[in-house]
């Protein structure tokens, strides 16, 4: 399966079919995507970079807490 960046229209169509609460699309290589509601960006939870990013933030918080 070849990953590619999906367009905004494809993302909106995917959300109509699968729901808009969390965006988790293994076929989409986008890290940041437009939010379903409101202004801003959210992340693709199926992208491994997202999990690395979240773990790095948590690690940074923990390290700052104990130093």
Short description:
The protein is mainly α and 67 residues long.
Describe the overall structure.
With 67 residues, the chain is mainly alpha-helical. It has one domain (8-66). It has helices at 8-18, 48-66, and strands spanning 32-34, 41-43. The relative contact order is 0.16.
- Shape call: elongated
First and last CA, distance: 44 Å
Q: Total strand count, please?
A: 2
Strand content: 5-15%
The radius of gyration computed from the alpha-carbon positions, rounded to a whole number of angstroms, is 14 Å
Q: Poorly predicted ranges (pLDDT <50, ≥5 residues)?
A: none
Name the structural class. mainly alpha
Oligomeric state as shown:
single chain
* Biggest sheet record: 2 strands, antiparallel
Helix and strand element order: HEEH
Helix content: 40-55%
**What is the count of structural domains?**
1
Mean pLDDT: 91
* Major sheet: arrangement of strands: 1-2
Q: Counting H and I runs of at least 4 residues, what is the number of helices? A: 2
């Amino acid at each position: 399966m070849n990953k590619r960046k999906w367009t905004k229209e494809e993302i909106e169509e995917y959300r109509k079919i699968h729901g808009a609460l969390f965006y988790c699309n293994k076929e989409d290589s986008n890290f940041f995507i437009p939010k379903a509601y409101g202004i801003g960006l959210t992340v693709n939870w199926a992208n491994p970079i997202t999990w690395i990013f979240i773990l790095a933030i948590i690690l940074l918080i923990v390290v700052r807490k104990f130093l």
